[in-house]
Amino acid sequence: MTEPGHRPAADSAADAAAAARTRLDRALDHLDVTFRGMTARADETQCDCHWGSPEELALLKVPGTDLDPDLLHRAWRAPDWSDHAAVLRRVLPQFARELTGGLGAYAYDIDNVGDSFHRADWQQWPAPQSAAVREFLHAWWAHTLLTPDPAVPAHALLPLCSQASGTLGPWLAVWEATEGAVPDHHLARTLDAWTGELLMGFLPWTTGGLTWEEEVAVHEELTAWFVRQAPARLRAHDASEELLDEVHLLGLPGPVRVEDPRWQPFRRRREAAAAAARERLRLHP
User: Fold this and answer.
1) Is the per-residue pLDDT at 162 higher than 60?
2) Among 85, 97, 194, 264, which residue is least crowded by beta carbons within 10 Å?
3) What sign has the CA pseudo-torsion 117, 121, 125, 128?
4) Could you tell me how many helices (H) and strands (E) the chain has, helices first?
């Protein structure tokens, strides 16, 4: 029997997830209001041989008209607009809703979304506009952490948010403060996808314009957070001993790491996974 005044954890988790969904819906609605009427610059140009037709370009200079998915993709993805910020503001309400749905046929390009936001320099936009974008990204991240099977998994959205904002720490801080089985499940999935690269000294995403020193700093910040946060949260949800061993290795300096008895089993698992991937490619080129 539930004690008076005590709510089951499942109910609390469901309430938190519902609140996160409401927050995201409001953020999307606020983007609609904030960027209503925006257009690309009247003198904006594009290559009609490689980008698209003059008629398609003209649609970016008309406010409020939804674009077909292919034109929307070409608009946010193109790296050579004379005013990328204006183009992104034009498409942002529709783009944001496509993003939270996983980008559909263009899901393969999710890794380039953060760079598109970064190139638009959105944090320097007028305060109401930058605040609307910031709230959208934070609401999307909070909702993802509390959703068991989000359209964009946490290990894809964290790099996106980090690249878009130019910083990693605030997104990790939100994850740290978000407790429960679902965010811990995302932690396990993320580590399962990333520990191999991290242990070899690489970031598990493309970093765009970061210098080598900046990449090292991000790698150190990320691995330190995993080492501090992951063990207790993973054990609480019966993560595999292999994954816990890899997190342990992340906390060791390089020379110590390769002498640790957990290192060779990790290398064998990595080599076996690489061989399996090569075989899949051979069978299904």
Assistant:
1) yes
2) 264
3) positive
4) 13, 0
